[in-house]
Design a protein that fits this description.
This protein is α+β, with helices and mostly antiparallel strands and 444 residues long. Helix content is 55%, strand content 16%. Among the domains are: 122-130 and 142-280; 359-443, no CATH class. A 3-stranded antiparallel sheet has the order 1-2-3. Strand 5 and strand 6 (387-397) form a beta hairpin. Helix 5 packs antiparallel against helix 6.
């Protein structure tokens, strides 16, 4: 196994030249594919190569010959005859327009006389219409009462209750004095339990009288509030009717004013439209000669042939530079893998040979070995520095009953380029492993 050589890097100029040449060739091919001649009933469209243009690539110095095309459009005999007639008619019309244009200075020097135009609408007639009402006329509501929002607030419940109780209180006081005198005559002292028990029914009677006065006062208050409520509703209904009558009167007035304003607008618009019509007639009379001259100068053109859309075929450009660089990347990957394998193998071989070299002379006669497997090839240098291929083997010694495997060169192979590293002892060849290792290192 020899040490692999790295792949040569692609030349960027050669890569650019190949890419440019491929791109230009693809573009020229696409041009020939898409320049499709067409023949129609109204005319023809043809493409012809009428020259060449030489383009120089400033980076690579490559001269590229690029074809030049000319597109020619021709009319059919019938369309060509129409074209000739139209051009003749345009020539005649242009002459008439030139003759008529001599009248333009006189026409343009005459302004439209606005003194005889109908009068425009008078906006003052619109301003004289009174404005519509935006508020209710409340002058007729001066005598109406205000709407009642509350009622019965002047009813004094406490005064009514006091008045009712005042009617019963004298009688209750007489009854209380009589009961107290009766108890005193019976010898029942004031404040005693018997006295309090005897006075308790009278106290209940007096309390019931107060409760009855409150009930009577409350009933009178409810009756007074009901009467005030009825009176307020009557006043509010009268006030609402008065407001409704005022609003109806305002709507009637506004409707009449709107009708009056619409009528004034109609008159105003009719006057303005009459004036506008008159002005348009005057302008038309002045512009008519100019429009006639413009019409004479413009003529219809012959219809050009309608060509179909040709297929736009595009051949994709070959990425030559990408292919070259990809191939270089692949070769570099292979080289790196081979180098890694070589370095791993040589590291193992050098490690073993280094261990053997420390032992000095060792028997390495091919005739004493068996089961030889060539596992690699390294380079070793002779005394002049020339490199020689030196095979490396895995082997066993014939006289070794254990058949232990060893790795190293054969003495006969080393003897071919460095005989001083081989010694013949007892009819067998021995190697100076130190010299062999030195030769390999010098050739690395």
């Amino acid at each position: 196994m020899s040490k692999p050589d790295p792949p040569a890097a692609p030349n960027p100029v050669d890569t650019a030249a190949a890419s440019t040449s491929t791109n230009v060739g693809t573009a020229i091919t696409n041009a020939f594919l898409n320049n499709t001649n067409q023949i129609t009933p109204t005319g023809n469209l043809t493409y012809n190569q009428t020259g060449n243009y030489t383009w120089n690539d400033p980076y690579t110095g490559l001269n590229v010959n690029i074809p030049e095309f000319t597109a020619t459009q021709t009319l059919s005999p019938q369309e060509q005859a129409i074209q000739d007639q139209m051009q003749g008619a345009q020539f005649n019309l242009a002459g008439m327009a030139n003759a008529q244009s001599a009248r333009l200075p006189g026409l343009l020097n005459q302004n439209v006389n606005l003194g005889s135009a109908p009068a425009a609408g008078d906006p003052n007639a619109l301003a004289s219409v009174p404005g519509q009402q935006t508020q209710l006329d409340t002058s007729g509501l001066a005598g109406a009462s205000n709407i009642q929002s509350n009622y019965g607030s002047d009813f004094d419940l406490a005064s009514v209750q006091k008045a009712l109780m005042g009617q019963m209180q004298p009688q209750l006081d007489v009854q209380k004095q009589q009961l107290q005198q009766q108890l005193a005559d019976q010898g029942i002292k004031y404040g005693s339990a018997a006295y309090n028990n005897a006075m308790m029914p009278f106290a209940n009677q007096e309390n019931n009288a107060w409760m009855q006065s409150i009930t009577n006062a409350t009933a009178q208050q409810a009756q007074a509030m009901q009467t005030a409520n009825a009176q307020a509703q009557f006043q509010n209904a009268a006030q609402q009717q008065a407001f409704q009558q005022s609003a109806t009167q305002g709507d009637f007035t506004n409707s009449a004013l709107q009708a009056q304003l619409n009528q004034a607008n109609t008159v105003y618009g009719a006057q303005n439209q009459t004036r506008a019509n008159w002005l348009n007639e005057q302008y038309a009379a002045q512009n008519q000669p100019i429009n006639q001259i413009t019409s004479l100068l413009s003529g219809t053109q012959v219809t050009n042939p309608n060509f179909v859309t040709t297929p736009n075929n595009q051949i994709p450009t070959t990425d030559v530079s990408g292919l070259i660089n990809n191939r270089f990347s692949q070769d570099m990957s292979v080289y790196q893998q081979q180098s890694q394998n070589y370095n791993s193998l040589m590291g193992g071989i050098f490690g073993m040979l280094g261990g053997v070299a420390k032992l000095g002379m060792g028997m390495s006669d091919r005739r004493e070995k068996e089961d030889l497997d060539k596992i690699a090839t390294v380079f070793a240098a002779d005394n002049d520095g020339d490199r020689h291929e030196l095979p490396i083997y895995a082997y066993s010694f014939k006289r070794d009953p254990t058949s232990q495997r060893h790795i190293g060169p054969m003495a006969q192979d080393v003897e071919k380029f460095k005989p001083e590293a081989v010694a013949d002892i007892g009819g067998r060849k021995f190697l100076d492993h130190g010299q062999v290792m030195g030769s390999i290192l010098r050739a690395a």
